[in-house]
Model the fold of this input.
Amino acid sequence: MKKIFIEKIKAYGFHGCLEEEKKSGQYFFVSLELELKSGFFNGDDDISGTVNYADACSLAETIVKQSRFDLIESLAEVIARALLSEFPGLSGVAVTVEKPGAPVEADFKTIGVTVSRKWHRVYLSLGSNLGDRETKITEAVEMIGASPECRVSRHSKIIETEPWGVTDQPPFLNCALEASTFLEPMELLRFLKNIENRLGREESPKWGPRAIDIDILLYDLLIYSSEELNIPHPYMHEREFVLTPLLEIAPHAVHPLLNRRIRELSPIGDCVKVSRT
Done:
């Protein structure tokens, strides 16, 4: 693992909750910890094999000067996201924003916040059984890939499947997608739900028909549970319409609860009808 450190970039900005801070401004210090992707630096003493420090400094300084935030937490978050989006050689970043002139009635040296972000590998399942099913899935894939927060690595062929859970409904088209994202799990869920809404998904009964459905299957080797989201997807190992497309693109991906690779998971039933390109 290789990291680049840039300490205390000094820039004048207008960030803070108080009107005086917004009006007069003050100096901020930004420190960056840039983690390079494995194999990105090849040891050839070639600048193309690393991140340009000057460009990283300039990006952070520009955001401090040109943006306006009440919270330095928001400022650090924007800088972190911008760095990951701008520099393909980065696997992760930590951004520290210090506010030495903070209006606090205490004897202190500086006040600051650190925000860390990194790229994560995720696998998604997409399905549709209402309207122009193939167009909905294609548009969803394009919308995911068009976001600066996500990079689509590959996706499977689209297959037609019989409905699961509630069988009295039209057949589905399904595919699987591999992507990288620096969104945290709940952020990713909200991002995908927004895409579903934009593509016309409406409230429907559980396992009922829908214009588009996008499920998070795997997120690195994370095991996560909340009222809104469970990772890995709790039914993925029972559904051939999930396993068949996923097997095409990620046979060696590991289910972290079952500790088995996708190619080792036995499909349930025979729901695949037609393969499509």
Observations:
- Residues 120-275 form a domain with the Alpha-Beta Plaits fold (CATH 3.30.70.560).
